[in-house]
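// run 5 | inverse folding | seed 20
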């Protein structure tokens, strides 16, 4: 059964206080490395106007802010207000006040004009939207011609051994830890969301159908993770 948009928003509002800690457990502590890889693939540079879609607690948006510098601007967008509040607090506390605008909005209906962004990133968000193709279409709309986006997310690996390890880790590490924090139901949805998530080849097809001229999917971590890199003509 598909989870509705409002249900997903409620899930992420509830997990907001421990979002970063749980991401560390879920990714074996590697999500920061993968996010730096994603940043490179986005081709964001100094002076750019950039989007971090489904920005969560703001770590990727803050990294983008360092890249674009004082002459650029970053918009961190998420539909969960509790996560945006954490992102704003982290920004003020750790980095002063870089030029980052935190926006509460739906990834399927972004409040930006066409061809607005030079580059975009998205981490662990595409798997959770209710319309993946619609999200890719909206991302294509707001990126400038020649601009790129890099989309990082968890995947179901195709190799049986890696798939078995991933499921064991979810069942025996991630969900029990979440249970101790009173969030078992919120994180139990991860496995079914992975089953529904299109594989890399299907993501490439969807991205091209959404209008992107170039789409490449890079599997990492034995296929348990992947980055979809897309470029608009």
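// decoded
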């Amino acid at each position: 059964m598909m989870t509705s948009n409002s249900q997903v928003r409620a899930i992420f509002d509830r997990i907001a206080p421990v979002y970063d800690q749980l991401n560390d457990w879920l990714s074996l502590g590697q999500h920061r490395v993968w996010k730096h890889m994603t940043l490179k693939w986005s081709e964001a540079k100094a002076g750019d106007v950039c989007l971090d879609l489904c920005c969560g607690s703001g770590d990727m948006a803050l990294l983008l802010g360092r890249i674009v510098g004082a002459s650029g601007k970053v918009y961190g967008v998420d539909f969960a207000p509790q996560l945006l509040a954490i992102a704003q607090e982290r920004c003020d506390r750790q980095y002063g006040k870089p030029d980052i605008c935190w926006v509460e909005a739906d990834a399927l209906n972004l409040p930006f004009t066409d061809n607005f962004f030079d580059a975009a990133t998205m981490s662990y968000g595409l798997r959770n939207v209710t319309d993946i193709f619609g999200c890719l279409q909206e991302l294509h709309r707001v990126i400038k011609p020649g601009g790129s986006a890099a989309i990082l997310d968890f995947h179901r690996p195709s190799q049986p051994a890696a798939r078995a390890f991933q499921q064991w880790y979810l069942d025996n590490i991630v969900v029990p830890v979440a249970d101790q924090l009173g969030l078992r139901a919120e994180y139990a949805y991860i496995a079914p969301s992975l089953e529904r998530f299109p594989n890399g080849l299907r993501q490439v097809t969807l991205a091209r159908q959404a209008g992107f001229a170039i789409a490449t999917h890079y599997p990492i971590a034995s296929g348990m993770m992947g980055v979809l890199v897309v470029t608009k003509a």
